[in-house]
């Protein structure tokens, strides 16, 4: 199965069963570049915010993971690079290619594997927002502030929230309670069998049609580098 075909399947599934707290669209109809809007979870410092990010997939997906970059390069978080070529890029184990290098401090099961789906990645990301991994931060200053001065850290996040509100789509109804972020199980076959893949429908995405999608340049489908 081609990367474009695999991504079509996952994008279609997310359209049927959205992950609470996210709005996912394609950028310029490019199946390899997804625009992701993250809704700040209620009860956290991110509440009320709407944070735009870009997820880029490699041409050999799902064998290698996508990258995840916040559009605001000044996004303040222990696990987001603050400067340089990687400014705004999220550093999280689930998006790291498999490696047996023990110096990374990650177990293989924490890293990317082709069996993972994008839903699990999005859930990990929204969890990481309010519960950062400070053991090996991409932004050392944010990690130190989070551990030593939580009120000051939360104020930095509230400033991000205020700035982000300008990006809330006019048609988006922002959630007001934590129950809006609870994953709902897909309908059973008795309730709705439309969630099952229609093999005949999938044939619409044959190799010829995959070529219609812009796979982008090497930069568009880059893979995250070393652990930090």
From TrEMBL:
Q: Where is this region: Disordered?
A: 161-228
Entries under Gene3D superfamilies matching the protein: Ubiquitin Conjugating Enzyme
Which Pfam family, just one, is annotated for this protein? UQ_con
Key word Nucleotide-binding present: no
- Coiled-coil portions: none
Q: Which UniProt keywords apply?
A: Ubl conjugation pathway
Task: Note whether Nuclease occurs among the keywords.
Answer: no
The segment(s) forming the UBC core domain are 2-166
UniProt superkingdom: Eukaryota
Q: Where is the composition biased (Acidic residues)?
A: 188-228
The record, for SMART domains, names:
UBCc (SM00212)
Tell me the InterPro entries matching this sequence.
Answer: Ub_conjugating_enzyme, UBC, UBQ-conjugating_enzyme/RWD
- Its name, as the record gives it, is Ubiquitin-conjugating enzyme E2 R2
Q: Which organism is it from?
A: Rhizophlyctis rosea
UniProt gene name: UBE2R2
């Amino acid at each position: 199965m081609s990367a474009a075909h695999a991504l079509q399947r996952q994008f279609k599934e997310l359209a049927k069963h959205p992950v609470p707290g996210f709005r996912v669209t394609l950028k310029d109809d490019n199946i390899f570049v997804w625009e992701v809007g993250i809704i700040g979870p209620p009860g956290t410092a991110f509440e009320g915010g709407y944070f735009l990010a870009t997820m880029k997939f490699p041409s050999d997906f799902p064998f290698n993971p996508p990258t995840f970059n916040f559009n605001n390069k000044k996004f303040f978080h222990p696990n987001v690079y603050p400067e340089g070529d990687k400014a705004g890029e999220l550093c999280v184990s689930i998006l790291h290619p498999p490696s047996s290098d023990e110096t990374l401090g990650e177990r293989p099961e924490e890293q990317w594997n082709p069996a993972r789906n994008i839903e699990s990645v999005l859930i990990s990301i929204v969890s990481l927002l309010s519960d950062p991994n400070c053991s090996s931060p991409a932004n050392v200053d944010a990690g130190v502030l989070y551990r030593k001065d939580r009120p000051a850290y939360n104020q930095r996040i509230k400033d991000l929230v205020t700035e982000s509100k300008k990006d809330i789509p006019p048609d988006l109804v922002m959630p007001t309670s934590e129950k809006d972020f609870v994953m709902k199980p897909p309908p059973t076959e008795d309730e709705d069998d439309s969630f099952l893949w229609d093999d005949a429908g999938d044939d619409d995405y044959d190799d010829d049609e995959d070529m219609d999608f812009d796979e982008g340049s090497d930069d568009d489908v880059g893979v995250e580098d070393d652990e930090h």
